[in-house]
Amino acid sequence: MVKGLSILGSTGSIGVQALEVCENLNINVVSLAANKNVKLIEQQIRRFKPKVAALFDEKAAEELKIAVKDTNTKILKGIEGIKEAVIHSDADTVLTSVVGISGLIPTMAAVEAGKNIALANKETLVTAGALVMKAVKEKGVTLFPVDSEHSAIFQCLQGNRKEDVSRIILTASGGPFRGYTFEELKNVTIEQALNHPNWSMGSKITIDSATLMNKGLEVIEAMWLFDIPITDIEVVVHPQSIIHSMVLYKDGSVMAQLGAPDMRIPIQLALTWPKRTENNFNKFNFYELSALTFEKPDMKNFKALKLAFEAAKIGGTMPCCMNAANEVAVELFLQGRITFLQISELIEQVMNKHSVNSQPVLSDIIDTDHKSRNLAWDIANRGL
Question: N or C: which end of the chain has fewer CB within 10 A?
């Protein structure tokens, strides 16, 4: 059981649910960190009374400082403030749940400070998996997956030998446009893309789920988390989102983890493992479901998943490049500046122009992210 927790991304969907889990388990919330949502983090400060809270946006941090001046919570700002918050000495674990590459630097700082990591920010491993896993090993800390798929794989691997694993099978709901033709995808709207059939998530990850890029990011994350070749990872569409992922063993046995599509369940497990604790979260009832179905992902019309596999195979800085282009493309789509299909088109164009560094250090990752973003904006501004 976690004794003291720092939450990176406390105002996001995962962060809010993590705080609910902490309240249920009476876990001490040591520090909170977020981007700029002053109103919500103020409410969290008053409810959970953390010792430290930090906002990346410095203007918002100053506003927060005034708003909670009657409390004992110290307010920090900027990236240095975020780093100071997550390495607080009273915390033994950091839950990283911010969206995008913004979680990389503070997560690395937490690892270097000897903190265990409950990882819900997949981009940290997508962009710098080799560097992060090396630091985790050197510091002797635990990295526990929070994403439902990776939590499922973790559970399915327990009590088995790694050399007996034949394949990891990640399940995907297929998103709101499962089964759509190329012609139908030309006209989908932002509102439709944000309407996920099973999960309640933030806007960026919801769009990633619609394009299947989210599954692509999870494939790369699984490669690093479980030290398995990309060629031994498979994606299967499972619309009901009841089987969260599976492991196929060399004797033909398949271990699958099932449960209701409720993120609080894997969040809780990450904070209590190896113990399991009772809760009032959603429970799966076999009698309420008529069937569990499976199908191959459509990588022709949902090209983002194919691009993610290609980036993983190339390695080096290519996954970072792909991720940066995707973050820009999703932002442009949400602004109504590009169409749904142009998301993967923009990503592919940026990847095609990228010169891969096969042995990057952290500064190379940051540089790749910056240059790839700029290139994506340049391409979009010129017109796809």
Answer: N
User: Whole-prediction pTM value?
Assistant: 0.93
Q: For 162-184, write each residue's pLDDT tens digit.
A: 999 999 999 999 999 999 999 99
The residue whose two tokens read 């939590």 is: 151
Structural domains of the chain ordered from first start: 4-141 (3.40.50.720), 315-383 (1.10.1740.10)
- For residues 321 and 379, give the distance between their C-alpha atoms in angstroms, rounded to a whole number: 14
Any idea which residue has 């927060």 for tokens?
A: 64
Burial annotation 33-43 (CB, 10 A radius, 16+ → b, else e): bbbebbeebbe
Closest-CA residue to 263 (of 90, 9, 6):
9
How many CB atoms sit inside 10 A of residue 353's CB? 14
Contacts of 145 (CB under 8 A, 6+ apart): 119, 151, 153, 154, 221, 225, 266, 270
The alpha carbon dihedral of 274, 142, 165, 155 has a sign of positive
